[in-house]
Design goal:
The structure holds two protein chains of two kinds. By secondary structure, chain A is of the alpha+beta class. Chain A has a six-stranded mixed beta sheet with strand order 2-1-4-5-6-7. Chain A is globular and about 35 Å long. Chain B has two domains: 130 residues, Beta Polymerase, domain 2; 128 residues, Poly(a)-polymerase, middle domain. Classes of the chains: A alpha+beta, B alpha+beta. Strand 1 of chain A pairs antiparallel with strand 8 of chain B.
Chain lengths: 139, 338
């Protein structure tokens, strides 16, 4: 489930950053095997380009710590990454490789949201290093 | 102490007039184009400006009317408002046939597809300020009254820069969100009058008086609401200072009884906010829900403040054994997305 707050944050950040890529963290929790994305935060990549955004550990951890501290929500934590594609392209092979790699650090699945030009969200999942099918996405 | 920042953010989204904003922009552009295409109005220096709560970005769902200030920058003291308003009416009738209503000092254009209207008020220069007709008589003459609608927009922008949720984030202005929350509370707790602008000015004075320095929406709203309640108690006798015009008071349609009633209700609301701020998350959320009520003038009346996912409607906490909290650490190293 992707909450409208998360969609709004991603849309706004992607719009501000264009024609460069923007990206950040998905925040939420796991309910059995479901990933609940309650909100999103932007993490600025100082070297972002029109075709690349990098999650840098220090900056990302700072953003996560701050988001958790200010959220006032006991379930909130990191559940995946998002980034924008200024072009109408879906998740790339590099994107899928990165989220698979990140997912090895957690027992639960991670989500990847790619914001394509026009506001379309491409949603992918990975668990323990393997891609997973996203069965259902609701508001 | 329950701050529920995530849920306040959602509450603010729930009162944001997203769809109305797009429509208001289109409607304003259409009216402006019609006014600027007229030769006489061009000679009078017509320069329409969006004013009102929508123009100041403090409007909440639903926006039913949008105010356009038709500045006639080259108009002299001999301008007869009745005559020029007749002309504006004719210009707008030609552009929007059958959708025009003449009002006592303005012309209203209906946009039924958007379910909103645009109110066009003419204005002539008066030193650094502007004057608008107070009430136009049958002979076309009128008394003019001084106004400065752009000043309130400037004060709003400045206050939103002065009061921040996070000192190191200039984009975290909290004044505008609190004005919106107060406007919503007025709709829920006050019977019709005083109106939204009156409460916006009260909020401005409350910020100026208290100079709050909180770290959450909940904290700011609670402090400001109590100050508004205190201010309202005095306003019935003393009037409310107009922050845009030195020595002037804000006009209101509210009677003295309505002002007293509003003061009592807002005092109640302020007490509820203080209780919510002191309570644990789930009982606090129930109180914030009561304070912010439901959306008004919308197809369905939905709660503005969402119930947290971990709370029951009665304020108890859910037993959620299947839930695993999101991770507290990000993946090690860097992750490149392309």
């Amino acid at each position: 489930m992707i909450h409208s707050d998360a969609r709004q944050t991603i849309n706004q950040a992607a719009g501000r950053a264009a024609p460069l890529e923007a990206g950040g963290l998905l925040l939420g929790w796991w309910d059995s095997d479901r990933v609940i994305v309650r909100s999103a935060v932007e993490v600025v990549d100082p070297a972002a380009s029109g075709t690349s955004w990098i999650r840098r550990e220090n900056l990302a951890q700072e953003a996560l710590d701050r988001a958790i501290a200010t959220a006032g929500h006991p379930w909130m934590g990191y559940v995946g990454d998002w980034h924008s594609h200024p072009a109408p392209c879906e998740a790339s092979a590099q994107d899928l490789k990165s989220i698979r790699s990140a997912s090895r650090a957690y027992p639960q699945p991670l989500l990847l949201i790619v914001h394509r030009s026009g506001g379309v969200l491409d949603i992918r999942a990975a668990r323990r290093g393997r891609s997973q099918t996203v069965l259902e996405v609701s508001a | 102490m329950a701050t529920l920042a995530t849920h306040f953010k959602t509450a603010l989204s729930n009162i944001e007039p997203t769809e109305d904003a797009k429509n208001a922009q289109s409607a304003h552009a259409e009216v402006t184009a019609a006014l600027e295409a007229d030769d006489l109005l061009v000679k009078l220096g017509v320069d329409p400006l969006l004013i009102g709560s929508y123009g100041r970005h403090v409007s909440i769902r639903r926006v039913k009317d949008v105010d356009v200030f038709a500045r006639l920058s080259k108009a002299g003291k001999d301008l007869r408002p009745g005559k020029i308003l007749d002309h504006v009416e004719a210009v707008l009738e030609a552009a929007f046939p059958g959708r025009i209503t003449r009002q006592h000092r303005s012309v209203m254009v209906d946009f039924p597809d958007y379910d909103l209207s645009v109110d066009v008020v003419i204005a002539r220069p008066c030193g650094d300020h502007w004057e608008i007709p107070e009430k136009i008589e049958d002979d076309g003459n009128a008394r003019w009254v001084e106004t400065n609608p752009t000043k309130m927009a400037e004060l709003t922008t400045q206050s939103n820069k002065d009061y921040l949720l996070y000192d190191d984030d200039p984009g975290s202005g909290v004044y505008v969100p609190v004005v919106k929350l107060v406007r919503q509370i007025r709709r829920v707790w006050v019977d019709d009058q005083p109106g939204g602008y009156f409460f916006e000015v009260l909020t401005y004075h409350a910020f100026s008086n208290v100079n709050p320095n909180e770290t959450t929406y909940a904290g700011y709203l609670t402090v400001v609401l109590r100050e508004i309640a205190d201010l309202l108690a005095d306003v019935a006798d003393e009037g409310l200072d107009d922050p845009t015009l030195e020595g002037k008071k804000i006009k209101t349609k509210a009677t003295a009884e309505q002002l007293v009633a509003a003061a009592d209700r807002i005092a109640e609301a302020a007490t509820l906010a203080e209780d919510a701020l002191d309570a644990e998350d789930c009982p606090a959320a129930v109180k914030w829900r009561e304070l912010l009520g439901t959306t008004k003038n919308t197809t369905t009346e939905d709660y503005v403040f969402p119930l947290p996912e971990y709370c029951n409607a009665d304020g108890t906490r859910k037993q959620a054994s299947a839930v695993t909290r999101g991770a507290s650490t990000v993946p090690a190293g860097s992750g490149r997305y392309a």
